[in-house]
Amino acid sequence: MGGTRKLAVLAVSAVVVSVGAAAPPTATTKATAGKVPVAVGYGGAVASVDADASAAGIEVLKNGGNAVDAAVATAAALGVTEPYSSGIGGGGYFVYYDARARTVHTIDGRETAPLSADADLFTENGKPLPFADAVTSGLSVGTPGTPATWQKALDEWGSKGLRTLLRPAERLARDGFTVDETFRAQTAANETRFRYFPDTVKLFLPGGKLPVVGSTLKNPELARTYAELGRKGVGALYRGDIADDIVETVEHPPVDPASGWKARPGKLAEKDLAGYRVELQAPTRTSYRGLNVYSIAPSSSGGTTVGEALNILENTNLSKASEVRYLHRYIEASRIAFADRGRWVGDPAFESVPTRQLLSQRFADSRACLIKDDAVLGSPLAPGDPRHPVPCGRGGKAAPTTYEGENTTHLTVADKWGNVVAYTLTIEQTGGSGITVPGRGFLLNNELTDFSFAPANPAVHDPNLPGPGKRPRSSISPTIVLDRHGKPVVALGSPGGATIVTTVLQTLTGFLDRHLPLVDAIAAPRASQRNAAQTELEPALYDGDLRKRLEAIGHRFKLNPEIGAATGVQRLPGGKWLAAAEKVRRGGGSAMVVNPAP
Prior knowledge:
The chain has helices at residues 51-62, 67-81, 131-135, 146-157, 162-175, 181-189, 191-194, 198-204, 220-232, 235-239, 241-251, 270-274, 302-313, 323-344, 355-358, 361-368, 499-512, 518-523, 539-542, 545-553; strands at residues 38-48, 91-98, 103-109, 123-124, 127-128, 177-178, 216-217, 279-281, 284-288, 291-295, 409-415, 420-426, 479-482, 488-493, 527-528, 535-537, 557-559, 567-572, 576-581, 590-596. By secondary structure, the protein is an alpha+beta fold. This is Glutathione hydrolase proenzyme.
């Protein structure tokens, strides 16, 4: 989503450097007026998909807050204006660079399965549930991690209290934001299932109709919920009245009886919420072109998969490669990394994940030798064994890439002290489960559908089957790149389900290897290969000459109208920051700085 938002309360200026390309899932839309994709200046920077959310973060930076404070404020505002992609009913992954110590830290705030869940969570009568039946149900709802992530980040590195940081979002929920074309289109795409739940209709289909572009959408219930969290702390969501309301909603989905929809009840209980904890853990680290690339470790596959692909590409001079060779090598590295991800990555609390070995150059070299410039590797490609690398080895059974909802959201923040946050948060697919918690103003996630519903091959262990308290595998890849002196070069991330990995990888190589300006690396037309028979291409590549030249090598393609919606920040000399966002995708993003440079 994205759109023209009310900026009367949070007016901030930014500098436009360039404008350009791409397209959203439903139809091509132009960048929304009032949003700019790139800004340069001093005092800190914020980039998100939404102008009101970016402005909330800038307001905090202007009032002396640091990058962590601003990230929480921006995320809370996205819960208002991007409610189908994020919110306190979901989870995410938070990556933080501490400028004083020159170190990177991460928080795994992924949703967890109920303690009563087992490997058969999504089977019925011995067969996997149809995906649509699982999504719009209490069964798909995991314990939310977003509120706990905010509090943990503030406890560890913040300088302001949660109550202060929620005020811009509380105000935005109370006063409303302006509906744009993207918000209306995403509401329309979910209208049928939203109508199953009266509370969702009341919130997102005012008067029982689709919201009108240009109208103001208010959410007074969420404003009250934010105010309650500000007064009582996030514990109110995990142990208080809000927790009781979540459990009641999941266990007894409030369906309109006239809809005829069978919303299967979930198994989330009070003990699941009360026992939830985020994981403060070490990041993944990959050396690339003399830089250090940091991201999130499992339960997300983002850090290991992006890192492995970069290691595979390390020995190819992408800066001098032709466009065809560059895209070919990028596609094949993605294919291989996804093959290995499917076999080895799951929740490390339950699975033996060989994270260090997956990120070893030795393993990457053993896989890179599979790539030939005049031929294409077939998919599904079998995984390698990072514990015992065999050069150019093939063997074992391929694991297909599970579906992940695409309408996550990402924000990137830097402050005047040089601290940086890359934070991706989600409620899974557009609209999550479709179920609004009555009286609370937020949608619940459908994150548990990121688990494998059943083993792809009963003879091969699947690390992503459900389990009690287990985190489903994710592709979220918030990334921070440091130079050899430990100072930030760039930070970025994207929504897009499993395409997050390829979006981050392509943007990094576009920026670091192809030397595109960050905003142009973000805007560049995308390709996404996830160990599938066909590589997905956005229209600018699908309709162009490059596609034919790649097909001549053996590539097969299918059209994807839009892949991802990235944001990033770049450190410039002299204490200056550049914030960058999408030019067109999802209505265009919003880049802002505290003090724009002339």
